Amino acid sequence: MYAIVETGGKQYRVEAGSTIQVQSLAGDVGTQIELNQVRLLQGDTGLMIGQPLIEGAKVTAEIVRQGRTRSITVFKKKRRKNYRRTRGHRQGFTKLLIKTIATA
């Protein structure tokens, strides 16, 4: 059984027992969260496609880690104007362990 869920403006294919890395979600390590935006569900009963979401379906996950990705360099320059700006950025992420996938 697998599902496609949406969080942080992106869609992820999840199965029970798998881990995914998504954009930062509020919560401490070890807390349970529910992902209610289920777009597609493949199970024993067949394929269910939401229009745009499946009513009553939810995915339960546990927060395994809160962290930040590697640093990237953001560099701006305008030629012949002596304008240069350098900045770094580290995007926050949340690592989730998928526990269960439930239908309505």
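(the above was protein one; protein two follows)
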Amino acid sequence: MPKIPEDIAARLDSGELIAAIAQDAISKEVLMMAWMNSQALQLTIESKKATYWSRSRNSLWIKGETSGHFQDVKKISYDCDGDAILLEVIQTGAACHTGERSCFHNEIA
């Protein structure tokens, strides 16, 4: 089983949350951004289902657990600073809680 890289583990062990970007594994469309703590990342690695940390509810949530709009994780990468995760996913249904495919559907003119 893949191990969390040391630089990311150190951030998470200190209580820091890291940004997690979900991207469609095929089209490469950016779907959403959420937060992960250590447990969310470990569960995502183990289950291959995107699991995030909800800051408002102060709890873990599996994407799609209530909506059925799961994110099956195909690949996990991290950036050069070790402060962001990229999840390449197969998205079932909408990624956004508004029902949109992507959370990035609002354009700044």
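Reviewer note on protein two: The beta strands are 18-24, 30-36, 51-54, 59-62, 71-78, 84-91.
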